[in-house]
């Protein structure tokens, strides 16, 4: 161990101040022991450069794995959402076509029986309007639910990405602080 002060000069200084040679040497010896003990305690808490590099490599590989997992998750979620959205669009088109066909059929029937059943036709029209309104409301509700779900998934992905970036930055700053 290197000492960062001259022990002989300290002994001489203590002797000048009135200590005997033996007292001065005992004081300096005690100071050296205290410093060595403190340095031993400090060295126990320190990390070697090799250990630090190994830990850094482990963290970087873990970050890379998390990054890959996030990309896979993001792609799978988006493709699942897209396919689900396409299915719902097809169902909506079928429902719309069915409603249109039904309206056409009802109109044709109504034209044939117009003179005989005016009151019945009015009632049918009212029922059809209610059914159409309910169908439109259902369609609007489904579309709004889909939009909400898409926004929710978008926000979740952004949160995960931001959390990962902040975690990486925190780890990097931690290593930077340890490094310095």
From TrEMBL:
**According to its UniProt record, where is this protein located?**
Mitochondrion membrane
* Name of this chain's protein: MCUR1 regulator
InterPro entries in UniProt: CCDC90-like (IPR024461)
Encoding gene (name): Mcur1
Gene Ontology cellular-component terms for this entry are: mitochondrial inner membrane
The UniProt similarity line reads:
Belongs to the CCDC90 family.
Q: Which residues cross the membrane?
A: 160-179
Record GO biological process: calcium import into the mitochondrion; positive regulation of mitochondrial calcium ion concentration
Instruction: Specify the domain of life of the species encoding this protein.
Output: Eukaryota
> What are the record keywords, sorted?
Coiled coil, Membrane, Mitochondrion, Transmembrane, Transmembrane helix
Task: State one Pfam family annotation.
Answer: CCDC90-like
Upper taxonomic lineage? Eukaryota, Metazoa, Chordata, Craniata, Vertebrata
